[in-house]
Amino acid sequence: GCTNNTCCNMSPGDYFVTITDASNCNYILPINMPQGQLPFADFNYTSMLNTYQFNNLSTPGNYVWMFGDGNVSTEINPVYTYSTDGTYTVCLTLFSCDTITHCTIIHVVGSNVSSIDLFKPFIVPNPANEYFELKLPDSKIVLMELYNSLMQKIDEKRIKDNSVIRTSDLAEGIYFVKLTNGTDSKIMKLIIRHQR
């Protein structure tokens, strides 16, 4: 049916559209409506501890993500970090001709990333351009793993305080740095933005 200037749920076929301008003149336009894909909402995800990369598989439209903890996003493929372990219902709502919602339940484990926080590692600069430096105030040697936004590992090495990691050959975007010391882990978000 049609509302205002939008027509939805029309069958494939030939149509004529009449347009009336301000002078009350009519224009008739032929339109062929091809067999289209019915709108649907769907997604999948990858995770590392309590950080989730949600991948939108829906038909085109406008999107609202609800992460189940009161937070929302209108990004197409958001990356979200939960602050508390637990079970959450994540919903993606597609707004097109119809409003369609798809939900799934996730079980978050890993937000309490234990004693590695005691030495409070941090990244400088962040956003990074040609390199970033890892500051490990207690000078421990830890395993560093670098992941892209799809949670694919792209680098791994043992590092100590003030280790410099080159990023000039990496594409701009969001990355995750995972530091592991024995059984303790911490994940930090890294943004790479090359200066032009």
Topology summary:
Blueprint: E1 2-3, E2 6-7, E3 13-20, E4 26-33, E5 43-48, E6 51-56, E7 62-66, E8 72-73, E9 79-81, E10 86-95, E11 99-108, E12 122-124, E13 131-135, E14 142-147, E15 153-159, E16 163-166, E17 173-181, E18 184-192
Antiparallel strand pairs: 1-2, 3-4, 5-6, 6-9, 7-8, 7-10, 10-11, 12-13, 13-16, 14-15, 14-17, 17-18
Helical segment tally?
0
Order of helices and strands: EEEEEEEEEEEEEEEEEE
Beta-strand share of residues: over 45%
Overall shape: it is elongated
- Assembly type of the chains comes to single chain
Q: Characterize the main sheet.
A: 4 strands, antiparallel
Number of strands: 18
Mean pLDDT: 83
Unreliable sequence segments: 114-118
**Proportion in helices:** under 10%
Class from secondary-structure proportions:
mainly beta
Give the C-alpha Rg.
24 Å
The main sheet orders its strands as 8-7-10-11
Give the end-to-end Cα distance, rounded to a whole number of Å: 50 Å
What does this structure look like?
The chain has 196 residues and is mainly beta. Helices cover 0% and strands 54% of the residues. The protein contains no helices and 18 strands. The strands form six sheets. A four-stranded antiparallel beta sheet has the order 8-7-10-11, with no helix packed on it. Strands 15-14-17-18 form a four-stranded antiparallel beta sheet, with no helix packed on it. A hairpin with a 6-residue loop joins strand 12 and strand 13. The protein is elongated, with a radius of gyration of 24 Å. The termini are far apart. Residues 114-118 have low confidence and may be disordered.
